[in-house]
Write a structure and sequence with these properties.
Layout (H helix, E strand, L loop, with lengths): L1 H19 L4 E5 L3 H8 L5 E10 L4 E11 L2 E3 L4 E2 L6 E13 L4 E8 L2 E8 L7 E6 L5 E2 L6 E9 L18 H4 L4 E11 L2
Antiparallel strand pairs: 1-2, 1-10, 2-6, 3-4, 3-5, 3-12, 6-7, 7-8, 9-11, 11-12
Length: 196
């Protein structure tokens, strides 16, 4: 009798865990030397890579948005998508990068497991522009419903100096004090949004 109770309890726990599914997470991916050499031979100035793992909550999908700030003021985002033709990811690769041409046009690339989005933008072509970029995630992070997770950034200023990194506060939100003096600040935000 005792064995049946234990077995029944285990079956109930297994059923509950399969109903809830695995949480959807994002984590940074570090390239191996050979992979980095391939990326370095492209026209991309930088690329940041991430793995997506887990299942989508029922009636939710991922929204990717490249938020743009000018002197701390939010400008219309460059891209927004929330249509992934899958219910889960197993090391789904997400990448964010930037390339520029000789005329000062900047292309931001967001590469997803479902395809690729490219956006172009003309950045002020003033001499002496300093820039910084990189990933904002250090560890795997669970995607919460309707809450942004900031994965990567690109920042530029025409000032004399610029600090890199440290653009998130202790809660994972953008630290507006750090970006208010930057000519341009771009942040890749990832959200779980309710499907329409």
């Amino acid at each position: 009798m005792k064995k049946w109770l234990i077995l029944s309890g285990m079956l109930i726990l297994a059923a509950c865990s399969s109903e809830n599914g695995e949480e959807l997470t994002i984590e940074p991916k570090k390239l191996e030397a050979e992979e980095q050499a391939l990326v370095d031979s492209t026209a991309m100035e930088f690329m940041e890579y991430f793995y997506l793992n887990g299942e989508f909550p029922k009636d939710y999908n991922i929204q990717l948005e490249l938020e743009h700030y000018r002197l701390g003021e939010k400008i219309d985002p460059f891209s927004s998508m929330s249509s992934f033709p899958v219910d889960s990811f197993d090391n789904g690769l997400l990448a964010f990068g930037k390339a520029s041409d000789l005329e000062g046009h900047t292309s931001f690339v967001v590469s997803t497991p479902a395809g690729k989005v490219v956006n172009s933008h003309e950045v002020d072509a003033q001499g002496g522009m300093l820039s910084s970029w990189g990933g904002l995630l250090e560890d795997p992070q669970v995607l919460e419903k309707e809450q942004p997770v900031y994965a990567a950034y690109y920042a530029s200023t025409s000032g004399q100096s610029m600090e890199s990194g440290g653009f998130l506060d202790e809660n994972g939100a953008l630290d507006m004090m750090r970006i208010q003096d930057l000519d341009h600040f771009y942040a890749l935000a990832i959200r779980l949004v309710e499907e329409e």
